[in-house]
Design brief:
binds flavin mononucleotide; 40% helix; three-stranded antiparallel β-sheet
Amino acid sequence: MIYEKIVRPLLFKCDPEKIHEVVRFFGEHLGWVFSYLNSKAHHPCKLQLLNLKLKHPFGLAAGFDKNGEMIPFLEFLGFSFVEVGSVTNKAWSGNPRPRIFRIPQDEAIINRMGLNNRGAKAVVENLKRHRNFIPIGVSIAKTPDPSIRSAKAIEDISSTLRAVAPHCDYVALNLSCPNTCEKIWDYDDQWFAEFFQEISLCNRPWKRPLFLKISTDMPESDFERISKWPLGGLIIANTTTSRDNLSTPLTRLDEIGKGGLSGRPLLQRSTKLITAARTIFGTNFPIIASGGIDSPETAAAKFTAGANVVQIYTGLIYKGPSIVKKLSRSSFDRDIL
Ligand SMILES: Cc1cc2nc3c(=O)[nH]c(=O)nc-3n(C[C@H](O)[C@H](O)[C@H](O)COP(=O)(O)O)c2cc1C
């Protein structure tokens, strides 16, 4: 309540990326304090998803801690797992600013960050720095350099996998970023066959579960194609480029321009995709839900559709850090585990 009534109106007066940088600065530089506090806390693991032992089913989605700089802080907030990234092989500055926009009428965000990150090598150094008590995933993507294409794209993503796999518990393949000029999803079946052959080879020494993150805009018919790939699970789903059914005036949306929309408006469409995936992949296939979760009710919709665990991002911005504890308590009340 205090966050929504007092803190949020103040924060929302400032540039979203500036606020994020301030949070990142404190999260990173006070990391050792949070590490110490986390080491004193005791949270029994109640849920297992593949190799991931979780204290509850609520994690942080990719994009908040792109470089793995805030993990002890995020663990302190109560997340049961954190997905770092998306990380690319080469450091990448992303798109010009401004590139994050809040649209409060829809409890949503539009971002066109464009995969800004410090590159796999720097992220690995951050991952090595702290002892974590929760599982860490790393989301990897192709360096958005348009000259890296076809076979070079496979080499680029594989290099990132080789770098991060020894230092994380699962790897998420982000092939669904709407904010870069290339659309990997449009590559042909031959490319995907070679890609997964190479990725599986690089992952062999580490055996990290490979999760594929799909777009909210992906047609359900694409699940047939995905079902042939050697995946450990799916993350459903990334942001959408659609602007349908929003309350924000069109003039404001035009002013903002391109980008991936996240938050409340994603809820229905991404939940429908989970239901479709469950039908095709069966009951034992791990599904991580992402998209529009900001309350115990919206999380419950994901579990009902067939998600095993959920991730939040935009809900954290709109509801504040207390949302994590509120969700984790609700999971115990509802006996989800
Ligand atoms: C500012 C911002 C940056 C993001 N960056 C990434 C990213 O780098 N990689 C990724 O896989 N998803 C990224 N996402 C998508 C989120 O991980 C999440 O899938 C999406 O926002 C839907 O969840 P939400 O409605 O809870 O925000 C980003 C989202 C936002 C708002």
